[in-house]
Design a protein that fits this description.
binds glycyl-adenosine-5'-phosphate, Rossmann fold, 5-stranded mixed β-sheet, 7-stranded mixed β-sheet, globular
């Protein structure tokens, strides 16, 4: 797992090895917009496939759609985005830097949590097996003080957010002495609301143009197609509709690499249920989505649920799955019980009846919705952050290796002739020719074999097949495993089977139904 201060290293590794580039870099980039390179797109596609298959293959009652990015502008009026998709914005008068007021307070709370954790870790080290965390929390004066402050600020923050009380929100920032990280001062403006949607115009003449928005979430494309899918697919409740696609938000504070972008990708699934059943399904999806993350094999300690203090205007329950990014625990996925809000709103604004006739209950109703919504780019960042390792090997040599789960790795295997002569390159090419229908393969003959292994480690290739002189005699090769660096000799005819056993997406999918 990458250390907390490793974001810079991860960013530069991603650029050096073709995972992520700043957008329009030759023009000095575009803030919070990124391009995925040759390795990045493979990893991204594999994450998408893992998600898509886990939804549509494993659930016979979940189907997919691909709705357009542009939608009728009334969609966003109905969904509440025109009126309520705002962030509270605050400026520091000295640095002229702009921040989200809620994020400033949340970061402050996270710092108090960190201080408490630090005290606990220190004490646990000191007392060893005898350490009683509960008792320590109840009796240690420093921890009690931090916890008291945290609880008080948290209570005020929750209330202010729920009541949209921006005067109080600003007062919390002042009372907690939260300073601008750039100027170091507490000289803050009032808080203003800022709508995050990008607008543009559709149509060619000035009379005929219509203001349209770049969708800020993919979910609405699913809601407006609810009846189309339900009727054409003869879907019976409960059923789900899944979608992967771009979303756009004019984020106030764009930082932390691909964590908060202005153009990003979401993987969303709306699960339509009978009213009254929503909490049962909320729990089901909450557990299954966590299982999906854990199946990747990164340490369990990297994940946690975070229940929302302030529910969105459409939700009656909501939780986030947070991942321990190099800059702390952050939201990767949201699971929301959205009630019947969206379908009812579209019914109201479109004037079309959007209901489901339940043959078992013999009645019509507006279904309730459980939504799972994961940011593909944030998922990408969590995989890279957890996978990035710098290791010192025996003999003092160092290597940087991306321990990406084999099923998601951009390149599954590299085929390397030991030397660039004696017919070894030709034999290696033959192997690639045979395997390229099944796996993304790379051929590399440049530099020493050690340096070639390092290059493959750096892009996370789980297996390297080396062709040597013995190969010409007995048709065997060595397969080197990335993480252990152990080598095993196998027949060329067994390579496909061996690699596919270890890299097949089915490995991950099967753990979800156990
Ligand atoms: N349909 C519900 C919805 O859009 P959200 O919590 O606003 O909910 C869902 O977004 C997910 O989309 C988040 O958990 C996050 O992973 C991702 N996401 C949101 N804004 C993002 C941004 N600016 N950059 C990258 N990912 C973002």
């Amino acid at each position: 797992m990458a250390q907390k201060n490793d974001l810079k290293k991860i960013v530069s590794h991603c650029k050096e090895y073709g995972f992520v580039f700043p957008s329009s870099e030759i023009y000095d980039g575009l803030s919070a917009v990124y391009d995925y390179g040759q390795m990045g797109i493979e990893l991204k596609n594999n994450i998408k496939k893992y998600w898509w298959d886990s939804m549509t293959l494993l659930h016979e009652n979940i189907v997919g759609v691909d709705a357009a990015i542009f939608m009728h502008p009334t969609v966003w009026k109905a969904s509440g985005h025109v009126d309520a998709f705002n962030d509270p914005l605050i400026d520091n008068k000295d640095s002229k830097k702009r921040y989200r007021a809620d994020t400033l307070i949340e970061d402050f709370l996270a710092k108090l949590d960190e201080k408490i954790d630090k005290e606990i870790k220190k004490a646990s080290k000191r007392f060893g097996d005898k350490f009683d965390e509960k008792k320590f929390r109840e009796t240690n004066p420093r921890v009690i003080e931090y916890q008291k402050q945290r609880d008080e600020v948290h209570e005020r923050y929750k209330k202010a957010m729920n009541e949209n009380d921006f005067t109080e929100l600003r007062q919390i920032i002042i009372d907690c002495n939260i300073v601008c990280p750039v100027s170091g001062t507490c000289n803050w403006t009032e808080i203003r609301q800022f709508n995050l949607m990008f607008a543009t115009e559709m149509g060619s003449t000035s009379e005929g143009t219509m203001k349209v928005y770049l969708r800020p979430e993919t979910a609405q494309g699913i809601f407006v197609n609810f009846l189309n899918v339900q009727k054409s697919g003869r879907m019976k409740i409960p059923f789900g509709i899944a979608q992967i696609g771009k979303a756009f938000r004019n984020e106030i504070v764009a930082r932390q690499f691909i964590f908060r972008m202005r153009e990003f990708e979401q993987m969303e699934m709306q699960f339509f249920v009978t009213p009254g059943d929503e909490m049962k399904w909320f729990d089901y999806w909450k557990n299954l989505r966590m299982k999906w993350h854990l199946a990747l094999g990164f340490s369990k300690e990297n994940y946690r649920f975070h229940d929302h203090d302030k529910l969105a205007h459409y939700a009656n329950a909501a939780t986030d799955i947070e991942f321990n990014m190099p800059f702390g625990f952050k939201e990767v996925e949201g699971i929301h019980s959205r009630t019947d809000f969206d379908l009812r709103q579209h019914e109201k604004y479109s004037g079309k009846k959007i209901q489901y006739f339940d043959p078992e209950l013999n009645q019509s109703y507006t279904p309730y919705v459980i939504e799972t919504s994961i940011g593909l780019d944030r998922m990408f960042l969590s995989v890279i952050s957890a996978a990035y390792c710098e290791e010192t090997l025996e003999g003092g040599e160092t290597r940087t290796v991306l321990k990406i789960p084999a099923e998601l790795a951009p390149v599954k295997l590299a085929v390397l002739p030991l030397v660039r002569k004696d017919g070894l390159p030709e034999k290696a090419r033959e192997i690639i020719k045979m395997l390229k229908f099944s796996f993304t393969c790379q051929y590399d003959e440049k530099d020493s074999i050690g340096r070639r292994y390092r290059r493959q480690d750096a892009i996370g290739t789980p297996y390297c097949v080396t062709v040597d002189h013995q190969t010409l005699e007995d048709n065997t090769v060595t397969i080197r495993e990335r993480d252990t660096m152990q080598q095993e000799r196998v027949l060329i005819s067994d390579v496909e089977n061996e690699i596919s056993k270890k890299t097949d997406m089915k490995n991950l999918l099967k753990t979800l139904i156990e």
